[in-house]
Design brief:
alpha/beta, Rossmann fold, 2 domains, 7-stranded mixed sheet, 4-stranded parallel sheet, elongated, binds alpha-L-rhamnopyranose
């Protein structure tokens, strides 16, 4: 069965020669429209596992988030190409409780691996350990749990690198002084909290940033309406606000619309999906977002798919120095490194989207 998975992967790699990526040029990456609809995922859940090929689960942060759809698309593509069965679960809300219920059902179902984009670093420890005690390989992607509770984290980009890009963008768009606010996802989100902490640490540790002032971290919970309301509140509460930084694709899209509709002079940056943000990106007063960053979420799903297969096949345990092939990703093979708290593989650096390239990328994801 191990041989079968590997040979299918090799065939796919040889037959397609696909190079997808966080490369600077859009390549053979599935377009946004290919994102797996929830109905399709539900059908997969019902399908019996191909004998011996394994059942691989992905648990997203919540339903209705296009970034999460793209993670699911990449994951599903890799697992299916290897002959495995995919179970995709999108909790109703971006909470730890919703994910705990989902993970418990996956344990009962007896899946082989679970890849989670965690809504909370600590609240999921016990259920992840329950899964591991049941013989399930647990890994994370996008947003980590406490490293004690998983084998490996598939990180989109180094936390420091993201924090640096975001604080430098704030510095640039404020002109080096003045107020900015952060519009985040949920207050418990591991990834957003890590990026925000990195931004704070960088700005507190360097005089260069001493004249920019973080007035508030607001939470839109990765819900469009709440993110809209939070943006409006920031505008009302801070008349001198110069910049909003939203390190969430849901938050940045909601904020972009509010700012642009209101013809606000407040500028926006953060992490956004090009397909959702193209209409807001521009250098003139008519556009709310001069530039933003992201990575390829389909590739991140693919990376988690390859990591799940490697854990399942016993090729890796998630230890530092482990390497595994990711045939359709440009930077393959990937090596597991230590991030200071636990082990991770990094997809690549964050990529900047601005008026010069947004039209090209909006078709990709
Ligand atoms: C949102 C989610 C996700 C994050 C992106 C940037 O879609 O919070 O976890 O990685 O934004």
């Amino acid at each position: 069965m191990k041989k079968k998975v590997i040979s299918v992967l090799l065939c796919v790699a040889m037959a397609t020669g696909i190079l997808a990526g966080c490369a600077a040029v859009p390549t053979a990456t599935a377009p946004a429209a290919d994102a797996a609809p929830a109905e399709e995922a539900a059908a997969d859940e019902a399908a019996p596992a191909a004998e011996g090929a394994g059942t691989f689960a992905i648990v997203t942060k919540s339903a209705g988030n296009p970034f999460m759809d793209r993670l699911g698309t990449g994951f599903e593509e890799v697992i299916k190409a290897a002959g495995g069965e995919v179970v995709r679960k999108d909790p109703e809300s971006a909470t730890a409780d919703a994910q705990i219920a989902v993970i418990q059902s996956l344990i009962s179902q007896g899946v082989d691996t679970i890849a989670i984009s965690a809504n909370d670093a600590n609240a999921l420890i016990s259920v992840c350990n329950e899964a591991r005690d049941a013989g399930i390989k647990v890994l994370t992607l996008d947003s980590d749990v406490d490293p004690s509770a998983r084998a490996l984290f598939c990180n989109q980009a180094g936390v420091e690198a993201v924090g640096q890009q975001l604080i430098d963008a704030v510095y640039d768009l404020t002109g080096g002084e003045g107020q900015y606010a952060i519009l985040s996802a949920t207050s418990q989100a591991t990834n957003q909290n890590a990026w925000i902490d990195a931004m704070k640490a960088i700005s507190e540790g360097d005089d260069k940033y001493s004249k920019i002032e973080l007035v508030e971290v607001a939470y839109g919970d990765d819900e469009p309406q709440k993110s809209t309301d939070q943006t409006q509140a920031l505008l009302q509460n801070y008349p001198d606000l110069k910049v909003i930084c939203a390190p969430t694709t849901v938050g940045i899209a909601a904020a972009a619309k509010v700012l642009q509709d209101q013809k606000s002079s407040v500028k926006l940056t953060g992490l956004g999906l090009p397909s959702e943000m193209a209409e807001y990106i521009g250098d003139d007063d008519a556009h709310s977002c001069p530039y933003m960053f992201l990575w390829n979420p389909i590739d991140l799903g693919r990376l988690a798919g390859y990591a799940s297969l490697a854990l399942y096949n016993g090729e890796i345990t998630g230890a530092v120095g482990d390497t595994f092939e990711a045939a359709t990703l440009e930077s393959s093979p990937y090596t597991v490194v230590d991030n200071g708290a636990g082990t991770e593989v990094i997809l690549g650096p964050p990529f900047k989207f601005d008026p010069s390239n947004i039209d090209e990328w909006k078709e990709v994801y």
